Amino acid sequence: MKTLIGAEPQPLAVALERTALLVIDMQRDFLEPGGFGETLGNDVSLLKAAVKPLQAVLKAARAAGLLVIHTREGHRPDMSDAPPAKVERGEPSKRIGAPGPMGRILIRGEPGHDIIPELYPVAGEPVIDKPGKGAFYQTDLELTLRNCGIENLIVTGVTTEVCVNTTVREANDRGYRCIVLGDCCASYFPEFHEMGLKMIKAQGGIFGWVTGSKQMLAAFAANKGPKYAQGSA
Ligand code: TIU
Description:
Layout: E1 3-5, E2 12-14, E3 19-24, H1 28-31, H2 36-39, H3 51-63, E4 67-73, H4 84-87, E5 99-100, E6 103-104, E7 127-130, H5 141-147, E8 152-158, H6 160-173, E9 177-186, H7 190-205, E10 209-211, H8 213-221
Parallel strand pairs: 3-4, 3-8, 4-7, 8-9, 9-10
Antiparallel strand pairs: 1-2, 5-6
Helix pairs in contact: 3-8, 6-7
Bound molecules: tricarbonodiimidic diamide.
């Protein structure tokens, strides 16, 4: 059975058992003061807008039995996976690996690298650690999606024009249908958020579809059938 999701540039019918919710980089390092986002010169409070709508979608997706996948941007403590070209930006005291109020900036295992409590993964939800902006680059995300029979991605998280857009472009080239929930994404630049969404849905949906939490929740509510078994045929 397919579920119709109201979206732009046109509605999309998807099989929810072949659809995963992807939550991109909802980490303290991007959303809380003292982390990577702030060291880049950003007002991190702008990202808060995505938390509540995303909480509602996450709850509904879990209740519907969807596969939920979380990603985290960050690097190994020895920084062997951090390209010098990425690290050598900004003041040395604020670079990736430097000590900050939430531990070393953008380093795996540090408090700042963790996912915010409001959207914390539950047992059984894959968490993909990624060294770059795109969630497919040097990760096992594609293998996980294939093993779980996933063809469609509901994409959420931060930031709209950086990690969300990069991941959507990577996913689109790999043949996944991406449905981006605009109000469940956010940027440090409101104009980039708006344009980032426009770029995805322009030209007949050149990279994917764009909708909001309200439409997604309505689509879940329309499905009163049995819970979806992850990876079932
Ligand atoms: N996750 C993600 O988007 N990483 C960034 O570095 N974003 C910025 O907007 N800087």
